[in-house]
Design brief:
Layout: E1 4-7, H1 11-23, E2 27-33, H2 40-44, E3 47-52, H3 63-73, E4 77-79, H4 89-97, E5 101-102, H5 107-114, H6 116-125, E6 133-138, H7 141-151, E7 155-159, E8 169-171, H8 174-192, E9 197-201, E10 207-215, E11 221-233, E12 236-242, H9 249-265, E13 270-278, E14 284-290, H10 297-304, H11 308-316, E15 333-340, E16 342-343, E17 349-350, E18 353-354, E19 357-359, E20 364-365, E21 371-376, E22 383-384, E23 391-399, H12 402-414, E24 417-419, H13 425-433, H14 435-438, H15 446-450, H16 462-487, H17 490-497, E25 500-505, E26 508-517, E27 520-525, E28 533-538, E29 546-551, E30 554-563, E31 566-571, E32 574-581, H18 583-589, E33 603-605, E34 610-615, E35 622-623, E36 628-634, E37 637-642, E38 647-652, E39 659-660, E40 665-669
Parallel strand pairs: 1-2, 1-4, 2-3, 4-5
Antiparallel strand pairs: 6-9, 7-8, 7-9, 10-11, 10-13, 11-12, 12-15, 13-14, 15-23, 16-17, 18-22, 19-24, 20-21, 21-23, 25-26, 25-32, 26-27, 27-28, 28-29, 29-30, 30-31, 31-32, 33-40, 34-36, 34-39, 35-38, 36-37, 38-40
Helix pairs in contact: 4-5, 7-8, 12-13, 16-17
């Protein structure tokens, strides 16, 4: 076994590898850029080496600096994690030539499978089902159009060296193909320093299901079941689960055996993933192979009990696999939600900034028997940088059944506090409540179909509104009691205020009477409780931002923060402000004028922090609906901004190369 391991990565995956290494008694070395000087993985490691400036090309992608760090610290092995150089055969060869062990597959396998064009040919020769397409590099737009017309739209334009959704575009027409070709090449060049593009038939309404494989240097290969990864946005996975609610045992076995056959064809060892697309009839086709640890590996670990990082390390050290295919048992159900620094209310555009509050749910076994796990690389006060992937954490739950795992995830998301940046917690909560998701009716079009107009706050049902109103009543009552105690005349102030309240919540208005009852508060809706009474129990106190409330016998984890004269309540994708007033104050409040926001409809605003890479319109140009106006690059992804209405460009406020903040003006229209 190795004495010292260098982790050639950052963030949550570096922290994840460090945890297993420590369990095995292996000393760890972290590497970091200027932007990550105070990062969690640097704090966790036994020692750390500075690589260089924030851009990945000058730090985490610099093989020479990584090798020098290994040599300087005496690390005899390097784990690449995922992303960066994890699937770079040249890096693996460089380490081997220097006598440093690469914790991953052999360079030849990385080379063969890392090139999507080559990998499809190998897969076909190994008897693996493949998607129809052009098995070669597309040189220019004209060639792309000829191939696309021959295959038939829709087609998928993909980076040959790609991964993680980078360099991928779906084209439904010639216009899409022209636009997607350049965008895919640019993203591929920026992310992988390789702008080769290929094209294949896009299978409409598919599921994305992948098989986890594991092999050793002695020829032993097994598969560890599958993961359902169909819920994606911009070809980036958002929610994963294991096993898939769609596969039957026969299909699982066939996919697993084909995945192993592909691995044998390239002499594979270590952990890896063979990805398939599966149609509604359970026909499956090889998509690609990731010759590394996957982001979503925790769900496989939760249902198999196998530490994949530990197995990778042991295989790299020359050990045999400790289990055979017959030993692999799938137990229960696991779900992973990726917590991203992004704004779901702005079409999921990236968000950067400081985590002013970061309080994940407690990990471990809950009273229900469910298990909560949170893999992260951040802490409260950490900075989310524009230079790297926007993932904050991977929240996972396990339970004996899929419905129980979903319920556990919904509760864990309620308990997760993130402030200071935009984040997708409310969106993830909304997915857990969607009936198609709960029924396992999934395709890669799930998000587009379930949220066709984009994500908005969920509208609570009537009973949920009453429960949230009761929570607001509790908060207001406890706050008033505290104020009265400070004033020193509790009973006199209580008599002056009286028990009547009017609660305004979203577009609902409730007239209630509140009275203390043993251990809690009774909230009667309507005169004399004619519309029902809910009893509220909680440990919430002034200053709490997250608390559990039992309302009418139902437990709710609600985030609570002051909002002007009211309270902002967040629960299960509901984000609403409640105003709790005395009747006379409520009557007067209805007379208050509503502040009208300024009209910015004739401006193109930057929707995220980023860099202007292209301006497609100039002052004086007439633009049509849907016309490209500007391209903004953020977190290695290109975002094309289009005109939402006809108009004439009155002023271009920025230049190409400008770094912009959120809502900074790019153009104004006459």
């Amino acid at each position: 076994m190795f004495e010292k391991l260098l982790i050639a990565n950052r963030g949550e995956i570096a922290c994840r590898i460090i945890r297993t290494a420590k369990k095995l008694g292996i000393a760890t070395v972290a590497v970091y850029s200027d932007a990550d000087r105070d990062a969690l993985h640097v704090r966790m490691a036994d020692e750390a080496v500075h690589l260089g400036p924030p851009p990945a090309s000058q730090s985490y992608l610099d093989a020479a600096r990584l090798l020098a760090a290994a040599k300087t610290t005496g690390a005899t092995a390097v784990h690449p994690g995922y992303g960066f150089l994890s699937e770079n055969a040249s890096f693996a060869k460089t380490l081997e030539a220097a006598g440093v062990i690469f914790v991953g597959p052999p360079p030849a396998a990385i080379e063969a499978m890392g090139d999507k064009i080559t990998s499809k040919g190998i897969a076909a020769a190994a008897g693996v089902n493949t998607v129809p397409g052009h098995m070669g590099v597309v040189e220019d737009v004209d060639q792309l159009l000829r191939i696309a017309r021959d295959i038939g739209y829709p087609v998928m334009i993909k980076a040959s060296a790609g991964g993680g959704g980078k360099g991928m575009r779906i084209a439904w027409s010639d216009a899409d193909a022209r636009e997607g070709f350049e965008a895919s090449r640019n993203e591929a060049r920026a992310s992988f320093d390789d702008d080769r593009i290929f094209v294949e038939k896009f299978v409409d309404r598919p599921r994305h299901i992948e098989i986890q494989v594991l092999g050793d240097r002695h020829g032993n290969l097994i598969y560890l079941g599958e993961r359902e990864c169909s819920i994606q946005r911009r070809n980036q996975k958002v929610i994963e689960e294991a096993p898939s609610p769609f596969l039957d045992p026969a299909t699982r076995k066939a996919m697993g055996e084909q995945a192993v056959a592909l691995c044998r064809a390239v002499g594979y060892f270590s952990a890896g993933t063979v990805e398939f697309i599966v149609d509604g009839d359970r026909n499956f086709y090889f998509l690609e192979m990731n010759t590394r640890l996957q982001v979503e590996h925790p769900v496989t670990e939760l249902i198999t009990g196998i530490d994949l990082v530990e197995e990778m390390i042991r295989v790299a050290a020359g050990e045999r696999l400790s289990l055979s295919q017959a030993d692999v048992m799938l137990d229960g159900w696991a779900i992973e939600s990726r917590i991203y620094a992004e704004d779901p209310y702005r079409n999921f555009l990236p968000s950067i900034g400081r985590l002013t509050r970061y309080r994940p749910p407690a990990e471990g076994v809950r009273d229900s028997g469910a298990v909560v796990r949170n893999d992260t690389g951040v802490f409260e006060g950490a900075e989310i940088s524009m230079f790297y992937d926007p993932m904050v954490a991977k929240l996972c739950t396990w339970a004996p059944s899929r419905p129980a795992a979903i319920d556990a995830m919904a509760e864990a998301l309620d308990d997760f506090e993130v402030e200071g940046i935009g984040h997708n917690l409310p969106f993830l909560s909304a997915v857990m409540l969607r009936e198609p998701f709960r029924q396992g009716d999934l395709t890669t079009a799930f998000i587009a179909e379930e949220f066709p107009e984009g994500f908005e706050n969920r509208r609570p049902c009537a009973e949920e509104l009453r429960r949230l109103a009761s929570v607001a009543a509790w908060i207001q009552h406890v706050s008033e009691r505290r104020d009265a105690q400070i004033a020193g005349s509790l009973s006199r102030r209580a008599r002056a205020i009286g028990p009547a309240r009017v609660i305004a919540l979203l577009d609902a208005r409730f007239e209630v009477t509140v009275r203390e009852c043993p251990g809690g508060l009774s909230v009667a809706f309507g005169d004399d409780g004619e519309d029902g009474i809910l009893e509220v129990l909680s440990d919430w106190r002034p200053g709490c931002r997250q608390a559990a409330f039992q309302v009418g016998g139902t437990w709710m984890g609600v985030k609570t923060t002051p909002a002007g004269a009211g309270w902002r309540l967040r629960w299960r994708a509901v984000d609403a402000t409640a105003q709790v007033r005395r009747p006379r104050v409520a009557e007067l409040a209805q007379l208050m004028p509503v502040k009208v926001p300024p009209d910015r409809s004739r401006m193109l605003l930057c929707p995220m922090p980023g860099v202007i890479t292209q301006l497609h319109a100039r002052e004086g140009d007439a633009v049509e609906v849907g016309q490209a106006l500007a391209t903004v690059e953020a977190m290695k992804m290109e975002n094309l901004l289009r005109a939402e209405r006809q108009g004439t460009v009155k002023r271009v406020a920025v230049e190409t190369g400008a770094s912009l903040a959120v809502d900074e003006v790019i153009m104004e229209f006459a």
